[in-house]
Amino acid sequence: MGIAEQALVGAPEFRYGDAMTRLLSTHILAAVLALGACLPGCSTIPVPAQSEAAASALLARQAHAWDAAIVGKDMAAVAANMAPDFRHIRQGGQVSDGAAFLAFIGSPKLVIHPYHVDDLDVRL
Question: Are residues 65 and 84 located together in one domain of the fold?
């Protein structure tokens, strides 16, 4: 008899339908139902209109600052606005990381003419 079999000698046998199994199943079902009842409230948190307007204005300012930093080749400002896992997808579908993007934007061979996005659509 192996170690696993020896540990089971004298242990009570639980089968589906035993009182303990039914009790555990009931508790799990109750927890799942309670969680399900809470989820709809988590996904629709009301935001006051003025907060939405303020967030939209902040994002628009950030987008314009990003554009200005790229045109001005302000690599510190561009890098400060990038997430650690930043990815740039180029016109041909090539994907590069943040370091490659900064090298590309900062290249003296690249000339970026000033531009402004007038019809920026911020969606929250």
Answer: yes
